[in-house]
Inverse folding.
């Protein structure tokens, strides 16, 4: 019977061709949107590695030229930190070079045992762990004990640990991303640290220590504070005034990280929503097209349907004929679409998306296309089932 | 073979009630070739549709091979149509999107049968009507007579015992009509098929064993 459906569709290719093309394009757009959705959802469900609950970011502008007045800058930052500690609304204080959800990123590459390894890198103070509620799965966070250490301490995420050392214990091991202090040693492991937020792809991550008195490094950092529960926005004004008293010529920009996250979500989801709207529009077009074509098909093929009934076809056979032909058309459209979209993972055109994401997106897209076909075919198929053979074959 | 007992068919709309057939009693023996004649609107095609299980009578009983089919559902009726009945129509009713071979195969699609077996039977039926050289042609590439021969091949491909022909020569010129009639007579003679043919043409009716005449939905002979 499938062969018969194929013949009917092929021999009516002029009529079916347009709807097949429409299905093809809709499938490709739908697949793209669903791939992005699956990618984002899958990333969202992975651990972030920190919490931004009640965390405020203070961006400090010293108004001093780049790479100069290092001692003045470091002293100023230490005085600021000291002053902020005196504020009762603040629960903990820390510092970080690249604040979560910010658009800046540091990526380093090195050779390790003859193969290239890449990691994203950040710098943090000893106090950051408490501010961002960072949980370590092994080892420890930075502390003043590290002041006297010969090598620079580093915290890495599990992904980088696995990438570098496989199943070996990474603690105490040297890692290849050298600074001017030499190669750092791993002191702690975190599950992850996805600085770019919930929707970002998990990557190798390394955090090195910002020493509170080091004037040699150009570790410009922002202050992160965790405020006590119930602290209102009114505290922001007092906070800024306190800081301006300590560092008179400096300026401060205070933002809640929740707001940063909202902005990040908006920025990342906007293209997805736009794509979703386009895909929905296309699907509506396909649905209307399918219903129209099938309706016309049924009314033009009344005699054929009557004939099939006369030849021994039941109403169910007619129903299956209409549905079957439509499923063949959809299959041809999505088959070409699938071959095309599968080139993306096969040729590794978008490296950061895992093959599993494509497979899930393909499966969901196929289910949606077939569900749409089924729904659109229902009414015309019912109409076809209702055709009385004697009436259909009546000749005037 | 076919028994019609007190058949009546009434078409009802909101305002009008039209009696298409009334008090039709008829017995057709196995292997008999009968014709049904009557003016337009006399109920010939309605009667043929009822015999062909395409339409149900308002009253009366219909039996095929002694079995009353009054209470049969869609599936049972479809099976009977498929296995016992073959239809030939005035306007051929070939599916234009299918080749000659595929058209002839249509009744066999509703049977459990392999594709190769279907093709074998279809080819044999086409040979029977002298069209084995046209299997890959499409209906639009054939003359009216050839199209009707394809329709006959389609009607006989499943080896039904009863053939119902609704004015099979009505759309053909006299020579083509004669050819089609010859095929039907041959089927009656050699295959012992029971044939019921509706016709307007007395010359065609004369060639059958018996003629049933209808007028205003009633038997007149």
């Amino acid at each position: 019977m499938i062969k018969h459906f194929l013949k009917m569709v092929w021999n009516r290719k002029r009529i079916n061709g347009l709807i097949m093309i429409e299905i093809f394009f809709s499938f490709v757009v739908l697949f793209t949107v669903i791939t992005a959705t699956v990618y984002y959802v899958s990333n969202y469900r992975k651990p972030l590695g920190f919490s931004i609950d009640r965390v405020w970011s203070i961006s400090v502008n010293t108004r001093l030229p780049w790479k100069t007045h290092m001692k003045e800058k470091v002293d100023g930052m230490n005085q600021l930190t000291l002053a902020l500690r005196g504020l009762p609304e603040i629960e903990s204080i820390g510092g970080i070079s690249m604040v979560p959800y910010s658009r800046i990123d540091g990526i380093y590459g090195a050779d390790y045992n003859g193969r290239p390894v890449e990691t994203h890198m950040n710098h943090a103070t000893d106090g950051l762990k408490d501010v961002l509620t960072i949980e370590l799965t092994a080892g420890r966070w930075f502390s003043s004990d590290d002041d006297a250490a010969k090598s620079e301490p580093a915290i890495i995420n599990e992904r980088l640990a696995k990438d570098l050392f496989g199943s070996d214990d990474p603690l105490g091991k040297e890692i290849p991303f050298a600074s001017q202090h030499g190669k750092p040693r791993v002191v702690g492991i975190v599950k992850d640290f996805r600085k770019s937020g919930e929707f970002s792809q998990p990557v190798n991550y390394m955090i090195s220590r910002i020493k509170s008195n080091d004037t040699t490094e150009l570790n410009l950092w922002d202050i992160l504070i965790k405020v006590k529960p119930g602290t209102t926005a009114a505290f922001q004004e007092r906070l800024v005034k306190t800081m301006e008293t300590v560092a008179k010529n400096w300026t401060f920009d205070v933002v809640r990280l929740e707001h940063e996250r909202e902005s990040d979500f908006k920025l990342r989801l906007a293209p997805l929503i736009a794509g979703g709207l386009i895909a929905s529009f296309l699907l509506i077009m396909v649905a209307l097209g399918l219903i129209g074509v099938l309706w016309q098909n049924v009314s033009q093929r009344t005699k054929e349907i009557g004939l099939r009934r006369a030849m021994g076809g039941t109403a169910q056979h007619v129903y299956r004929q209409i549905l079957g032909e439509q499923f063949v058309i959809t299959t041809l459209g999505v088959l070409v679409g699938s071959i095309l979209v599968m080139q993306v993972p096969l040729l590794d055109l978008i490296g950061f998306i895992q093959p599993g994401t494509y497979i899930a997106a393909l499966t969901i897209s196929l289910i949606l296309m077939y569900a749409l076909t089924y729904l659109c075919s229902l009414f015309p198929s019912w109409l076809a089932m209702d055709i009385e053979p004697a009436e259909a074959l009546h000749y005037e | 073979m076919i028994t019609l007992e007190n058949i009546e068919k009434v078409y009802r709309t909101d305002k009008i009630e039209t009696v298409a057939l009334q008090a039709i009693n008829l017995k057709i023996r196995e292997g008999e070739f009968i014709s049904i004649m009557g003016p337009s609107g006399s109920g010939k095609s309605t009667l043929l549709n009822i015999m062909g299980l395409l339409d149900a009578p308002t009253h009366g009983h219909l039996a095929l091979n002694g079995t009353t089919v009054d209470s049969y559902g869609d599936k049972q009726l479809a099976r009977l149509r498929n296995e016992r009945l073959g239809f030939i129509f005035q306007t051929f009713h070939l599916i234009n999107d299918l080749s000659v071979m595929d058209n002839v195969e249509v009744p066999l699609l509703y049977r459990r049968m392999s594709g190769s077996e279907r093709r074998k039977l279809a080819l044999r039926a086409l040979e029977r009507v002298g069209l084995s050289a046209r299997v890959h042609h499409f209906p639009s590439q054939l003359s009216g007579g050839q199209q009707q021969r394809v329709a006959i091949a389609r009607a006989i491909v499943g080896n039904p015992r009863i053939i119902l022909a609704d004015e099979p020569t009505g759309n053909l010129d006299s020579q083509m009509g004669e050819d089609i009639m010859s095929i039907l007579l041959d089927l009656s003679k050699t295959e012992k098929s029971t044939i019921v043919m509706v016709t307007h043409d007395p010359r065609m009716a004369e060639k059958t064993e018996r003629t049933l005449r209808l007028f205003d939905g009633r038997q007149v002979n």
